[in-house]
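Appendix B, example 12.
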Amino acid sequence: MAKTKVARGGAAASQESALVRAADFLSAVRVELGKVSWPTREQLTEATKKILLLSLALGVFIGLLDWVLQKILVDGIAAIAR
């Protein structure tokens, strides 16, 4: 017959191992976050302004493009069909 292996320590050892691994992971995350070069408040504000302005401009452009294509395709084809 085949022999089955039983893990030593059972569930308590695996739970402890999981807690140790989680603590090691969080410790490594903390070290890596310390290496990050975070932007200053001014840099963050400027980047946010640029993104909002670009989003607004892109929205206006897409809206105008939609309106022009609607006039050409929907109204233009309807006028030709009459």
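The chain has a mean pLDDT of 88. The chain is about 80% helix and 0% strand.
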